[in-house]
Amino acid sequence: MEKEKDREISKRKKVTDKIRLWFSHVPFIGWLLGCLLAVVVEQIFGSMVASMIGLPKIPALFGFVIILKEPFLTPSAIIYVLIIYLLPVFLIARFGSAWLNALARKLLSLPGWMTTLLYLLLMYGILHIWSDISAYRVLTMKLMMIAVILTLSLNVINGYMGEFSCSHPGFMAIGAYVSSALTVMLFADDKLFGPALLPPALGPYLFPLALIAGGAAASIGALVIAIPSFRTRGDYLAIISLAFMFIVKSIIENLEVVGGPRGMGSQPDYANLPTVFIWTVACIWIINNFVTSTRGKALNAIRDDELAAEAMTVNTRQTKMTAFLFSAFWAGVAGGLFAHVLRYVNPGTFGIQKLAEVLAMVYFGGLNSVYGSIFGAVSLSLLEEFLRPLELFKWIIIPLLLIFVMIYRPTGLIAFREFNFQKMIQPRKTPDKEV
Amino acid sequence: MPLLEVKNMTHYFGGLRAVHNYNLAIEPGQIRALIGPNGAGKTTVFNLLTGIYTPTQGSIRLLDEEISGLMPHQIAARGLGRTFQNLCLWRHMTVLEHVKMARYSRISYGLTGAFFGGAKRRGQEAEIEERAYSLLELLGIRHLADQVVVNLPYGAQRRVEIARAISLEPKILFLDEPTAGMNPEELSKTMDIIRKIHGELGFAIYLIEHRLKVVMELCEKIQTLVFGEVIAEGTPEEIRENPKVIEAYLGKEVIH
Q: What are the b/e assignments for A371-392, b being 16+ CB within 10 Å?
């Protein structure tokens, strides 16, 4: 009896091993092409398939919302996901590994920047075609990418540097308000600031400058925290930064120039999908560059043993300061993008709930890891959308999930892993024939 | 002219006098030791010299330049490398990263290089990596380069600390109890390493040590510190015979 059970288990293990082996031969480009095929299939046959299996329209986010709202449509939703998404990806992954690896090798032989550009274009293409189906998808994707920027920027402090910052919603608010004030004042007719000062046609080109200005303003705000709190260690930064977040919020609430508690609207529509995508890619690239350089690794040294770092010639004070301002800059940029995606901001957004959200993303995804931050931000912001029909229960399920992650993987799901794009796009070994 | 010259250094912790009128002159290439019973203030002397504490009084001159009052990282960059009594390693970093990190002050690619990459950064990173590998080779831990330090055995961790301290190109290497907690085999290996790095790289070494075997075999000159004061200074033979030292370690002989 026991033996049979064991055999059963080992058999099952063999099967999963086999599946894993199969897919380990598929290079990154294979998955991308599979996704591309899937989104194209959806674009062409999506509504047809949906009406054939009795769905009212194309499921917006992989059918989760439909399942939760109308449970009797569950089989249809699952069939839809299987046919439209999984089948094309599976087909390409299963039958293409030989020529996909050849393709990956060919792409690698191009000059580095061209390879990267091609991959990025492919990724953007998938994103664009997929979100073309509905405005809701576009909005979800934009907010998701902004969450990636924010999570990464917070991970620099909480993960890489090992301090605990609570002020990122505050930096985000500063970035959002400064960049909105600039674009609204310069390029929009508005009742707060009057008619546009510059021709609105210039707007999209100067928008990056407005975002950078927002980020820089957030950095200046960060200086206010950094100077008093970095003389000490431990919980002080957490307390001071928490106070800072509330101060920023109440200052904005009392600032009638920018609309006070009513908020500020009519930002021009500059933050379209490609813009947000480019900023996200730039953020990932720059932050990853920083944390993989010896200068950036100094943050890890400070986190693990500040005294030893100092004794090994690391200028700890300057390093901490730089990292904090750098991190605040990206939070500010995320805020600026956020304001221009929603085209309305109010101070209430940047409170304790935003803080909880971004902290959850950092700790869920994994400390000290760019992969982890991307994973955390993407999975939690999608999960929030998936569980939207549950309303209040959403805020029970997500925290529960976090508790389990903290129990079983205290540093997050993908912690302490270096992000290496070059390694990611390498061709995989082709399967041996006898397998 | 001595490499490092300390004159009348005194340090108080509140009302407690930890170090009193400490004088020291280290010549280039010398190996010296600081011995003394527990709590004598040996590590405090190291912390004062490497800038972790600023002495209440007195002067510390490195190559005739006053260094007391500078930040520890500035002092380290001027050529004082050190190890710690109870291993201060960075627990999430690999051995290679440890050795590379000590080159921090020599990196000149700045924030632009750190944020945007570029040829200058690649060149410098490759250069310090190559140097790091050759140092690891010297200490016999090259095969561990990609390991995270917490996974290493104790003896290897000690070597990583030494490799890291050497990596900053010290003029004087401070070793705070380099053989603490080692068995006789590891002890003799460590002594071989100290001899080897001293022979190849030629810096001065100043070490705190409890085991007289190490001190007697390695050092040219020894200071004995008791309650923050130097009670004896001289060659190993002189120290061994010195009645004050014997008294400090073994207590006074009572004649009935």
A: bbbbbbbbbbbbbbbbbeeeee
Question: How many pairs of residues across A and B have Cβ atoms under 8 Å apart?
Answer: 102
> Which carries the bigger pLDDT value, residue A176 or residue A133?
A176
Predicted confidence at residue A1, as pLDDT, reads 55
Q: How far is CA B93 from CA A369, B76, B115, in A?
A: 13, 21, 21
- What is the Cα–Cα distance from A267 to A214, expressed in whole angstroms? 14
For residues B176 and B181, what is the distance between their CA atoms, to the nearest angstrom? Answer: 12
The answer to whether the CB atoms of B100 and A294 lie below 8 A apart is yes
Coil vs helix vs strand at B247: helix
Q: Which residue of A has its CA nearest to B112?
A: A290
Expressed as residue numbers, the domain containing B57 is: 4-88+153-250
Shortest distance between the Cα of A271 and any Cα of chain B, in A, equals 24
pTM comes to 0.90
- The reply to whether A155 and A94 lie within a common domain is no
Q: Please count the structural domains in chain B.
A: 1
pLDDT of A107 strictly over 90? no
Contact residues on chain B for A416, CB-CB shorter than 8 A: 92
- Provide the shortest C-alpha distance from residue B76 to chain A (in Å): 5
Quote the domain boundaries for residue A74.
Answer: 2-111
Which two structure tokens, joined as six digits, stand for B158? 């000690």
Tokens of B115: 């944020």
pLDDT (tens digit per residue) in B69-105: 899 999 999 999 999 988 899 999 999 999 999 999 9
Of A286, A300, A308, which is closest to B88 when you measure between CB atoms?
A: A308
Distance between the two ends of chain B, CA-based, in angstroms? Answer: 50
Searching chain B, which residue's CA lies closest to the CA of residue A315? Answer: B73
**Contact state of B92 with A304 under an 8 Å Cβ cutoff:** yes
A428 pLDDT more than 80: no
Residues A178 and A253 in one domain: yes
**Complex ipTM value:** 0.90
Which residues does chain A have within 8 Å of residue B88's beta carbon, measured at their own beta carbons? 305, 307-308, 311
pLDDT for the residue numbered B22: 93
Cβ count within 10 A of residue A422: 10
Q: Which stretches of chain B sit within 8 Å of chain A by CB?
A: 50, 52, 71-73, 76-77, 82, 84, 88-93, 97, 100-105, 107, 109, 111, 113-117, 121, 125, 128, 164-165, 168
- Chain A residues close to B93, C-beta within 8 Å: 297, 300-301, 304
**Mean per-residue pLDDT of chain B:** 90
A372 touches chain B (CB under 8 A): no
Do A152 and A249 have their domain in common?
A: yes
**Tens digits of per-residue pLDDT, A360-369?**
999 999 899 9
Is B175 in a helix, a strand, or coil?
strand
Q: What six digits make up the tokens of A94?
A: 């299963």
Q: Do A301 and B71 touch (CB under 8 A)?
A: no
In a domain, B112, yes or no: no
Which of A290, A312, A368 is nearest residue B101 as measured by Cβ atoms? A312
Calpha distance B141→A20 (Å, rounded): 35
d(CA A133, CA A59): 10
